[in-house]
Predict the structure.
Amino acid sequence: GAFSPPQYLRSTQFVAGAMVFFVGMGINIHSDAVLRNLRTGTSKEYHIPRGGMFEYVSAANYFGELVEWTGWAIACGGAPGWVFVLNTFANLAPRARQHHAWYQAKFGDKYPQSRAAILPF
């Protein structure tokens, strides 16, 4: 049959992609809140982020963004969405590695050794 946008919005592909997108959005929002709340008042002291995906990766906000765009690529289908995900990863992964190395240097043995930079596996 002919392509029908309302029908596509009920497709398994679109619904699954939207669900992945919103999980990523939740991770991203939570991670940003954790980072915002690390410092209180006028304190300039650095702290180790804890909770949520920060238990697994140093750049939990970047991981959440990758999950978001992966969901978008699934929902949209086709090569352009996946190219966007790969470009996003190529942009965020080096930054995540830099953050990870900084945390390790700053906190030494106090920093959780089991944490990865951006991908929790």
